[in-house]
Amino acid sequence: MDTLDKLTATLIERRNAAPEDSYVASLYHQGLNKILEKVAEECTETLIAAKDAQRSGDNSDLIHEVADLWFHTMVLLVSRNASPAQVLEALEARIGVSGHDEKRARPGSGAPSE
Question: Could you tell me the pTM of the whole model?
């Protein structure tokens, strides 16, 4: 089992845990808005770490913040009964496809199709 699979299994398991026993369970218990708040917070911290890394040349804080962002995004996915595997499938489908073309092909993109 790879890291994403192990973490996904843990996140699924924690949906049924008591909020006082698990940080992830407490996020699920507090609901979608709390999870979204954490994703936004981690996104902001990632942006700041990226700017700091550009100045200092040290990516260590950036790596930790991206890990936090990925983690909380995975919590969001699992809370919505989606999986990181589905995200990986979407990324795999984009390999070799122009980003402009991929975006135009999304349902509801509003972009004119060619």
Answer: 0.85
